[in-house]
Design brief:
The strands form four sheets. This protein has a seven-stranded antiparallel sheet with strand order 15-12-14-13-17-18-16, sandwiched between helices. Strands 5-6-10-8-9 form a five-stranded antiparallel sheet. It has 16 helices and 18 strands. The protein has about 550 residues and is an alpha+beta fold. It folds into two domains: about 75-100 and about 110-295 and about 515-555, Uridine Diphospho-n-acetylenolpyruvylglucosamine Reductase, domain 3; about 300-510, Vanillyl-alcohol Oxidase, Chain A, domain 3.
């Protein structure tokens, strides 16, 4: 999911009061902790809104599953006595580690379908134990699946690896967390890979520093997961991906430990760090990284600009992206996006602009940005309610809303991409047409909206959202039809299959058509060196090959 942070503050998810027993227990079927999310009255109100729009049954509210209702398959693996303390077969933990948090994942959770639950969940307490876990998995022919924060929306953490493995192990780095070291002179920090977003920022705050990387999954995603999936963060221009902040990296692979040098830049061959940025757990587990930091911003300036015509708003966004002003926020909400989020009434597109700095006032930057918008017929209004704040609130509630949509029997999907400016007009119309046709055929109607999550000098990263009525028991088939149409249109019209959601298992077939076959072969070669037994997250990025009998002396057969 894309990032926001429209007011420049660290995002916090909406929460409900929790009992002490619930304070650290995650939902196994949806987003966040038990006790959080929309209230029953809010879900009913949401259902009423969509019932009025599409004439669906607003009274159909599904009840979440309970662990005792799940038919979890018996574990096929038993860890060695020397590692027994690092593993769990507790049913709730196995259920938590079965799925990410996409619409498809939540629907299957509500159907009580946990056929691919991991046999074991590993909680290594240090790098040595992690390496031992991976070595044991290699010898046992067990797939090892790095879990991160479990917030994948593309099937990146699901233990569905085919028939070529003797079992599956979900690897959770919750014990490898924290800001371990800070270099204030270089403005960098060494951070453990299992550190969740809120803990990371809380520890940096006392030093007046910030990583300033706020994906929508911030609350339940880790530093290692951000790097492994090339996560998109806070900034809508310039430094949009986590890659820009990685100074050095440490990885535990089945073959051993790899660590790169701390350098501000280097031209010494292909970047080692970049090999692991986007590797999605297929090459090893990211246990630490030195990350480039920033002082916390003190100065902010922003505005919301209204455009009657979407094309003029697009032109303004392009000029801003090419101006060198580098706004932290430059997110364009299309007419339907503004309406569905409550940010507007659907009569205008809204461009949310924001600048921030730890060094200087920003009036001149904002003034010039507004001049650019005015030249494309954009206008700033004196609204009582700030559209940026309304959209930000809706954005942060997005994962909880997705859970509510499933409970209401609705079909929802989000997909994002990037394309060059010269192609965008044709691309946008083609994607909308393909999705609307599929949505009409599969669901009998619905709504699709668009926003720009990020903008670059050479193109935007449009982010599309779909909302449609579901048929009981057919929601996954409806989702599949829409997903297929959207993905085929994106690739055919020259976009990327993913700008920041990652590839996972859901996008693999389109990713393999996007990248050159020779590169896929080269990636397999790197994997063979780092993961000789082929046990690291099979099915992500590449077709799973099945486990290879592996002997630690190095021979494979």
């Amino acid at each position: 999911m894309s990032a926001n942070g429209t007011d420049g503050q660290t995002p916090t998810a909406p929460q409900r009061p929790r009992t002490p027993q619930q304070a650290t227990r995650r939902k196994f079927w949806g987003w966040g902790l038990e006790g959080e999310g929309l209230t029953p009255s809010e879900i009913e109100q949401l259902g009423g809104t969509f019932a009025g729009r599409w004439g669906i049954d607003a009274a159909r509210v599904l009840e979440p599953p309970r662990v005792d209702e799940l038919d979890l398959p018996a574990p096929r693996l038993s860890p060695p006595a020397s590692l027994e303390a690092a593993f769990s077969t507790e049913p709730h933990e196995r259920a938590v580690h079965t799925y990410g948090r996409s619409f498809r994942d939540v629907v299957r959770a509500f159907r009580r379908d946990y056929a691919h639950a991991p046999d074991l969940v590993a909680f290594p307490r240090g790098e040595d134990e992690l390496l031992a876990v991976l070595e044991w998995c290699s010898g046992a022919g067990a797939a090892a699946i790095p879990f991160g924060g479990g917030s994948s929306v593309v099937g990146g953490v699901e233990p569905d690896v085919g028939e070529g493995y003797h079992g599956t192990v979900s690897v959770d780095l919750r014990h490898l967390q924290g800001v371990l070291e800070i270099d204030p002179a270089s403005r960098a920090a060494r951070i453990a890979g299992g550190t969740l977003g809120p803990a990371l920022e809380a520890q940096l705050k006392s030093h007046g520093l910030t990583l300033r990387h706020f994906p929508q999954s911030f609350e339940w995603s880790t530093l290692g997961g951000w790097i492994a999936t090339r996560s998109g963060g806070h900034f809508a221009t310039l430094h949009t991906h986590i890659d820009e902040f990685v100074e050095a990296i440490r990885v535990v692979a089945p073959s051993g430990v790899l660590e790169t040098r701390r350098l501000p830049g280097s031209g010494a061959g292909p970047s080692v760090e970049r090999l692991f940025c986007g590797s999605e757990g297929t090459l090893g587990v990211i246990t630490e990284a030195w990350m480039r930091l920033q002082p916390r911003p003190r100065f902010r300036a922003g505005a919301s600009v209204y455009f009657a015509a979407f094309a003029e708003a697009v032109a303004a966004a392009r000029e801003l992206a090419q101006s060198g002003l580098h706004p932290a926020n430059c997110r364009l909400l299309g007419h339907e996006e503004a309406l569905l989020s409550g940010s507007g009434d659907g009569s205008h597109a809204i461009l949310v602009l924001g600048f921030e700095s730890a060094d200087h006032e920003l009036g001149p930057w904002l003034a010039r940005a507004l001049e650019i918008c005015a030249s494309h017929r954009g206008e700033v209004r004196g609204e009582e309610q700030d559209p940026a704040a309304v959209w930000r609130a809706a954005f942060l509630r997005g994962p909880h809303l997705r859970d509510a949509f499933v409970r209401l029997g609705l079909v929802t999907e989000t997909f994002e991409t990037a394309v060059t400016w010269d192609r965008f007009g044709e691309f946008h119309e083609g994607v909308l047409a393909a999705v609307r046709q599929a949505m009409d055929q599969a669901c009998g109607g619905g709504a699709v909206s668009c926003r720009f999550a990020y903008v670059y000098p050479d193109g935007p990263a449009p982010y599309y959202s779909v909302f449609a009525p579901g048929r009981p028991g057919q929601e996954l088939e409806q989702w599949d039809e829409i997903k297929l149409a959207a993905s085929e249109a994106i690739l055919a019209l020259g976009g990327t299959i993913t700008h920041h959601h990652a590839v996972g298992r859901d996008h693999r077939r389109w990713y393999l058509r996007e990248v050159p076959p020779l590169f896929t072969g080269a990636l397999r070669g790197a994997k063979a060196e780092l993961d000789p037994a082929g046990i690291m997250n099979p099915g992500v990025l590449m077709q799973p090959t099945g486990a290879v009998t592996y002997h630690h002396e190095g021979d494979r057969r």
